[in-house]
Amino acid sequence: MAEQQKRANQHVTTRMVQANGTIDPQTGGVVPPIQSSTTFARNSDYSQISPNHLYARDDDDLVRLGEDILAKAENADAGLLFPSGMAAIAAVMRTVPNNGTIILQSQIYWGTTKWVRDFCARREINLHEIECSDMDVLAKTIGTAKPDLVFVETPSNPWLRVTDIAQAAALSHEVGAKLVVDSTAASPVLSNPLAFGADIVMHSATKSINGHSDVLAGFLATSDAQSEIWQAIAMDRHDAGAVLGSFEAWLLIRGMRTLPLRMERMCENTMAVATFLQNHPKVEAVLYPGLTSHEKHELATKQMPNGYGSLLSFQVKGDAKTALAVCAKLETFKRATSLGGVESLVEHRHSIEGDATGVPENLIRLSVGIEHIQDLIGDLNEALS
User: Fold this and answer.
1) How many helices, marked H, and strands, marked E, lie in the chain?
2) Which among 219, 243, 236 has a CA at the least distance from the CA of 69?
3) 3-class secondary-structure state, position 377
4) Could you tell me the end-to-end alpha-carbon distance of the chain, in angstroms, rounded to an integer?
5) What is the distance between the alpha carbons of residues 305 and 191, in angstroms, rounded to a whole number?
6) Residue 5 pLDDT more than 70?
7) How far apart, in whole angstroms, are the C-alpha atoms of residue 172 and residue 161?
8) What is the CATH class of 2-256?
9) Is the confidence at residue 164, as pLDDT, over 90?
10) What is the DSSP letter of 19?
11) pLDDT band at 354 (very low <50, low <70, confident <90, very high)
């Protein structure tokens, strides 16, 4: 008990590195073992050999460990892992009844926007897409729409807009709505939305939590595990079978061990890249909350006290042809869709989603990794020349 209490008081970095102090009881291994079985044997009287192991859909020790580590990182009451970030988002959205109302932040991750639009159309749910970082717009829409659910993404992808979580929570709670925050771009190391009043925080764990571009996973955490919405989400995951496999959970835990260190280096690199781009004559605008020129820089500093993340967007002076030419010349930055990995990636967002959310043709999104900063800046400088 004393050791458990000591671990509970440890810094989140220490708990992640040591996987919450897990030691394999059979071998003494410092890395948690993989149990790949989907089912577990019973005694001759049909009692369970292990009371905590009936069937892998609910009884996977590695999934439980991953959930425990991430829940503690978010200072949450409980957490649930899913096989992808979109599976986690879908589980939240399915708690909204037919003819209910959802407020969704506009111009966020295209996968979220597209799925929610289609879902609301099928279920006859009222959908309001608004810019939630504008508190006046958010307050007015919440007051008139009386939503069941408010979903925001902060910092947003690819615009890097920052929403005031505390204000959004207060406005949502006034009408009995739940606030869900997609904090993927921040990670649990940089921001904890539950501490600012959010009801649920969501992560695409595929991104920085895993950090190595080799696992699909999603994560939800809540400030109240007994709430009606959380119970509905937990039941939905169980009954629909939206669970993570043992090997994926093992890889995720392995990635989490270096999350604090990776995020420190990535934030440092991204700030240097943002500063370089801001001073480049061929760059029209840089979108990054770490820059003092960002309209919500002070709010971002309050909500993300440990860094501003590895996601950055910038607009080149020119059109789609100009932006695509820059992307084509990049070599250290790989042309691929994702973010939060150790490798740096570049994406021309308009090529992915077209005019669906109003992304400018000259916008380029970067996910800055842990490479040497001079190689990254040199690559960008050559591409922009």
Assistant:
1) 15, 12
2) 219
3) helix
4) 61
5) 7
6) no
7) 19
8) alpha beta
9) yes
10) G
11) confident
Comparing CA positions, the residue from 296, 298, 311, 325 lying closest to residue 384 is 325
Looking at residue 352, its pLDDT comes to 86
Distance between CA atoms of residues 272 and 169, nearest Å: 33
Residue range 236-276, pLDDT digits in tens: 999 999 999 999 999 999 999 999 999 999 999 999 999 99
Give me the percent of the chain exceeding a pLDDT of 70.
98
2-256 and 260-384: identical CATH topology:
no
* Positive or negative: CA dihedral 329, 381, 324, 281: negative
Mean pLDDT of the chain: 95
Domain ranges of the chain: 2-256, 260-384
Q: Which CATH number fits domain 260-384: 3.40.50.150, 3.90.1150.10, 3.40.50.720, 3.40.1190.10?
A: 3.90.1150.10
Among candidate residues 205, 167, 160, 192, the one with its CA nearest the CA of residue 309? 160
Listing DSSP states for 127-144 in one string gives: EEEE-TTSHHHHHHHHHH
**Dihedrals phi, psi of 25, to nearest 5 degrees:** -65, -25
Distance CA 287, CA 17 (A): 32
Burial of residue 34, with CB atoms counted within 10 A of its CB: 0-12 exposed, 13-18 middle, 19 or more buried: middle
What is the residue-wise DSSP string for 178-214? EEEEE-TTTHHHH--GGGGT-SEEEEETTTTTT-SS-
Within a 10 A sphere around the Cβ of 26, how many other Cβ atoms?
7
DSSP-based three-state secondary structure for 98: coil
- 345-347 β-sheet, strand order: 283-287, 311-316, 363-367, 345-347, 334-335
CA atoms within 13 A on the CB side of 284: 13
In eight-state DSSP terms, residue 338 is -
| Helix, strand and coil in the chain, % to nearest 5 | 40, 15, 45
**Least confident piece of the model among 27-41, 258-272, 334-348:** 27-41
Produce one character per residue of 351-368: b if its CB has 16 or more CB atoms within 10 Å, e if not.
eebeeebebbbbbbbbbb
